[in-house]
């Protein structure tokens, strides 16, 4: 809430008390921004909402409020519209005060106070068995942007990567490495049917040969398998971390599935579930009675062969997050995990934790080039990796495009558009707005400072002032509803307004340097706001293009 909204709301609450003897609860009076400029800068429907409570006609309530609000010094006028809406028209000089606020706050403009909430966000969490692909890239861009927004909005945030370093896929990784290791000596060795065939596996095997020679050729599986598992996991995680850092994504914590077993967390979770009375034996297996917590069917915890299902360590992992003091857990999962949400929430509820887990499902990404879907890399013949995509179109374009559509909808990623240096490319359009402002400021040169921005009355200037004034609200709402897409939407709106303003209004007027200085101040405020918004989605703000 900016200072204008705060002033209007407090004035309405005061009028309700003095004129109608009504004490409004916090949050009851709400303002909205009208779609049409002739309807004012803000509007409220509070008069219509209080009709039954005050037992008066909404128009009468609105008239009473308007009469009492006419003297509010930040307003040009206030009027009743329709059945009881109240429209507020703010003085341009008051709107222009946002410029000083932006220039003073700088990189912190738009940030919010401490929300007193700790949030743990888990995203990417790809198996350490190969390179990250474009599906992982979408989750990485969205997850990292979400954590930036949450931090900027005043939340305490931990970014976590969950490492699936157990299970069949890791066994297949070690067997694939060992086969390539033997092949490096010219020996016949068949790769597992479900193994890994990438060049990285060959490279690791060659490194082992160079460093350890034939030390593992005659060893038993019980010896070489753990070695090649550890080697493969370490190599893949280092590469994943390196690729993510290039993509401007980093993590505060890496938690491995194996560590949950080693620390006894998995066994404790299972013991606690048994003690809760929410488990039962059937057909030689141990089941979790998740249906009593809203799941569509009960889930197996221990299979008839004695092995654990993935659910057990996953529950232990989520309990570990809560043990560390986090109020909310936000997970970004792939589309194949959609059916997993209900059982995980059921398990947490069994432990007494309800409404602490939020899950967003990452929908499919299709790369489109010349109107045709591109499924494989022309260079490697494999699925296109995050690294290849960034080498092709750049990190800025990749990140911007990945967060410009809702995570819940499939994304058709237009490679031709992402490569283009035209205003049709949204990231180019936004970055050009930032660079264009820098160019104008350079051309104007040194100019005497102004302390009152009272000349900014052009409709395009009012539009810009209102939009940068809304930035903190956009940030707060994006954080609250976890909507990263709201930020690129805001960036596009602000960029469009800036380009339109530049094309219509003469910025540098040698005959009126006071007005020129005010307009330069406005451009500086727009530039700071634009840069801060771009930073929230991990996109650079160049000074020249």
Describe the model:
The chain has 545 residues and is an alpha/beta fold. Among the domains are: 3-90, 2-Layer Sandwich (Gyrase A, domain 2), CATH 3.30.1360.70; 97-114 and 423-536, Isoleucyl-tRNA Synthetase, Domain 1 (Orthogonal Bundle), CATH 1.10.730.10. It is 50% helix and 13% strand. It is built from 22 helices and 14 strands. It has a 5-stranded parallel beta sheet, with helices on both faces. Strands 1-3-2 form a 3-stranded antiparallel beta sheet. The model has no long low-confidence stretch (mean pLDDT 95).
Summarize this structure briefly.
The protein is an alpha/beta fold and 545 residues long. Among the domains are: 88 residues, Gyrase A, domain 2 (2-Layer Sandwich); 132 residues, Orthogonal Bundle (Isoleucyl-tRNA Synthetase, Domain 1).
CATH C-level name of one domain: Mainly Alpha
What is the assembly state of the chains in this entry? single chain
The percent range for strand residues is 5-15%
- Structural class, by secondary structure, is alpha/beta
Q: Helix count, per DSSP?
A: 22
The major β-sheet equals: 5 strands, parallel
What's the β-strand tally? 14
The CATH architecture name of one domain reads Orthogonal Bundle
Average of per-residue pLDDT values: 95
Question: What order do the helices and strands come in, and which of them pair?
Answer:
Blueprint: H1 3-20, E1 42-44, H2 46-49, H3 51-54, H4 58-69, E2 75-81, E3 85-90, H5 92-95, H6 97-105, E4 118-122, H7 134-152, E5 156-163, H8 168-183, H9 199-212, H10 221-246, E6 253-256, H11 257-262, H12 265-276, E7 279-282, E8 285-288, E9 299-302, H13 311-323, E10 328-334, H14 341-350, E11 357-362, E12 365-369, E13 372-374, H15 386-393, H16 395-403, E14 411-414, H17 415-419, H18 426-444, H19 459-469, H20 471-481, H21 486-504, H22 513-536
Parallel strand pairs: 4-5, 4-10, 5-6, 10-11, 12-14
Antiparallel strand pairs: 1-3, 2-3, 7-8, 8-9, 12-13
Helix pairs in contact: 1-4, 6-22, 7-16, 7-20, 8-9, 8-10, 12-13, 13-14, 15-16, 18-21, 18-22, 19-21, 19-22, 21-22
